[in-house]
Amino acid sequence: MMLPVLLLLLPALSPALAWIPVEDWESGNVTASVGGLGQCICHVYLPETTFPADRVQHMQQVSKDLFLEVETQMNKMVSYEGKLEVYLRELIDLIARMDMLEIDPDNFIKLDFELLRTELREFEALVSQLKYSLNSSSPMFDSLYTEIRNMTLTVNQLETLDKSNLEVIRLEFAKLQKKLEECQKEQELIKPDIGNCNHTGIMTVSKPVVVQLDAHLSAGYQYGGWGKDSKPARGYESMYFLGDSSIPSVKNFYLYSNYENLILKSAFETHNTPSGWEGTGNNYIVHGNAIYYQHNAPLRMTKLDLSTSMYEHRVIPAASHKFSYSYSEKQNLDFAADENGLWVMYASEESKGKIVLAKIDEKSFDIEEEWNTGLFMERAGNAFMACGVMYATRPVDLKTEEIYYAFDTKTKEEKDLNIRFQKYQEKYTNLHYNPTDQKLYMYNNGYYVSYSVKFDK
Hints:
Elements: E1 30-34, E2 40-44, H1 53-78, H2 85-100, H3 113-134, H4 139-159, H5 166-187, E3 202-205, E4 209-213, E5 223-228, E6 240-245, E7 249-250, E8 252-256, H6 259-263, E9 269-272, E10 279-286, E11 290-295, E12 300-305, E13 310-315, E14 334-338, E15 341-347, E16 354-361, E17 366-376, E18 382-386, E19 389-397, E20 400-408, E21 414-422, E22 430-434, E23 439-444, E24 447-455
Antiparallel strand pairs: 1-2, 3-24, 4-24, 5-6, 6-8, 7-10, 8-9, 10-11, 11-12, 12-13, 14-15, 15-16, 16-17, 18-19, 19-20, 20-21, 22-23, 23-24
Helix pairs in contact: 1-2, 1-3, 2-5, 3-4, 4-5
């Protein structure tokens, strides 16, 4: 009697995947037939399951680029010019390039899966900020969150050498493209009023967007500040600055050409304050391509021109070392910028510890006008300016901060507020508003945190 013969017609398989059990084969990939001599012939077609390392490496790079592009587009959207076309083009280009990866499987770089997951979490936070900026309750955003989480699951599967391949990710990006096209349509209908102060003040503050730990990746650098130029020179609209220290002092400033280089810790310029020009406190800002910070003995304003690397200072005779914000000592001068220009806040013996608000003449680098407020400096966590109004904050609990006071320089009226927002850590040493994107930038115990501000129209 002739025994049946079993023939398996298989594509070339990687030896690393030869262990896949038969029960995991999809039934649709197995067919059987009877040969001309009565023998049983089984055909099993297995999908190509070789781990797509080259495509995953490419996906990591492109995913990082997409995350950074979303932040850039959100900033542009908030400043009237904001559109998502660039990001959409990136997505379309990504799909085409991922198709091309099938042809070129030769490149491989070890993939940092944890970094990729972090970037996806930050991407999700940015989408949340986009939803807030648009003031939209559209279910489209919920769907967008779902797509991002699906991408995260796919990354986890790739890390464990699962049988998933990059086709799944390509489809996820295609879905994201569709969702963002819908976001673009809504964005065209709703645009924030950058530079326009035709409102009654701050209404709400968004949830925090936490970027990362400081450039040293050390929790010991609790003091510092970060953000963007509030009056950028041409060509420096995307520049970010950072200063950090383990004590409340000003020694080093780092400048980054864009958001991506900030994340990558790739500064294009570093300023180390020379002997005699070291500052104290951390309430500094960048305005008009110059850094304004506090200098002691005597207490004075200091300006570092980033174009010329030249320093100059102006003494404020009335300012006192005795009064500081509650979160940190030596926060005696607080610089701020808004739609109306450059400001500095301080307390004096004459004001009995209450904040004196002063407008700075940028050309002469001198005080041009002052207002006496009813706010005790030591009771506030920090303060900032927006549309000629000074806002002060204080802690509610370990994770909640509150804007509780406002002083309007036009009407000289004071107002009690109750605008709460979340903190990532309990204490922070720098909080300032940027009029170019209507965001608050906070250096929160070593973490870079930002918020979108919504005004009451």
